[in-house]
Amino acid sequence: MNYYSDEIINNIIDKSDIENIIENIEEFKDDAKMLFYYFSFYDIALDYIDNLLNDEKNKIAFRCIDNTEFNLRNCPSAMIYRKYINKSKKEIHYYILMICTKHKFKKLGYASALLDSFINRVKDEETKKNTDNYKIKIVLSSVDNSVSYYEHYGFKIESNKLTDFPVLMRYEKLEKEKDYYIMSLDI
What domain range is 129 assigned to? Predict the structure, then answer.
């Protein structure tokens, strides 16, 4: 089952004693940061993770093994994402900024289940609220060896220019020699 950081924080606010709310929220955020550090320390720079998680507009989705209640230590896969609304173009983009899975759980379907549930959540939420007929997309920047994985979901390569996506440019360093695969899924 997927759990979302905004709902977790709201639950902390609802269930914590008033004098412990801030401390409990900070503890949750620190624990989430450690999860991302631990899952990806071989592959991704810690300052990149810090930049993603320090931006309050970014949210986290967790995939947990146990479906009864959220337990961070029971989450083999997680993602950082951001919703961006462009009113002038009448578009809503959900940017997947990072997906990671604990090494011993890789290739067991947890990231796929996380992505499946996230896509369904976006579809459900946005079809209910989209009275202005905005175009809705999920957008991500993929490494070369993951392109076919995302194509399986229906993502299509939209661009090879990171500069076409200012939200992604906030976090990723532009490297002239690097190949970029900006992919999107229409909802």
Answer: 2-186
